[in-house]
Design brief:
heterodimer, A: 108 residues, mainly beta, six-stranded mixed β-sheet, three-stranded antiparallel β-sheet, 0% helix, 42% strand, B: 113 residues, four-stranded antiparallel β-sheet, 11 strands
Chain lengths: 108, 113
């Protein structure tokens, strides 16, 4: 079965430190990968998708097909980055498969 | 403009009761998706509509779950004879087309006692 794995439930970093949220996927084809974010008391929203190759709010993610990874990175964490982050794959279809999420806490 | 809305935001049901959860997608969005998110988990796909046609219901966990979108706009997810394991947040998402960005609603938190 297709799977998206986020190994860390909680990641705490200090403000200004680099952040890397890990995501691995299992799919032999060419899926589209996404990062969704959920800030406190807000709805799930798209942060970025790999095909757009954009940097949103200073975050970037590179698809590594060899390692089947799509890690989310930011060089300098801000307090407002504290949120729940979900990695997702479309597994080649419209059915998004989400990871279990990583809660990022940025400490002052 | 208004985003995806869902009602009620919270629902408490006694085991065995039927519940109906409503989703109002963004106007003009053809595709509509329902997801179930259990505590501590990511959202899991339940079903997909293109306009009024339910093209995929492979994620519905049992025949107690039923979804409809009769006029291609508002959708209702109905759960009959609710069980404790149905307790979860039910998310609705809509998109312009099946491969466009999915916009999520705030969810309905269902608690079955």
């Amino acid at each position: 079965a297709q799977r998206v794995t986020q190994p860390e439930k909680l990641l705490s970093v200090f403000k200004g430190a680099p952040v890397e949220l890990k995501c691995n996927y299992s799919y032999s084809g060419s899926p589209e990968l996404f990062w969704y974010v959920q800030y406190s008391r807000q709805r799930l929203q798209l942060l970025l998708r790999h095909i757009s190759r954009e940097s949103i709010k200073g975050f970037t993610a590179d698809l590594n097909k060899g390692e089947t990874s799509f890690h989310l990175k930011k060089p300098f964490a801000q307090e407002e980055d504290s949120a729940m982050y979900y990695c997702a794959s479309d597994s080649g279809t419209y059915k998004y498969i989400f990871g279990t999420g990583t809660r990022l806490k940025v400490l002052a | 403009g208004a985003g995806v809305s869902q009602s009620p935001r919270y629902k408490v049901a006694k085991r065995g009761q039927d519940v109906a959860l409503r989703c109002d997608p963004i106007s003009g969005h053809v595709s509509l998706f329902w997801y179930q998110q259990a505590l501590g988990q990511g959202p899991e796909f339940l079903t997909y509509f293109q306009n009024e046609a339910q093209l995929d219901k492979s994620g519905l966990p049992s025949d107690r779950f039923f979804a409809e979108r009769p006029e291609g706009s508002v959708s209702t997810l109905k759960i009959q004879r609710t069980q404790k394991e149905d307790s979860a947040v039910y998310l609705c998402a809509s998109s312009l087309g099946v491969h466009n960005e999915q916009f999520f609603g705030p969810g309905t938190r269902l608690t079955v006692l």
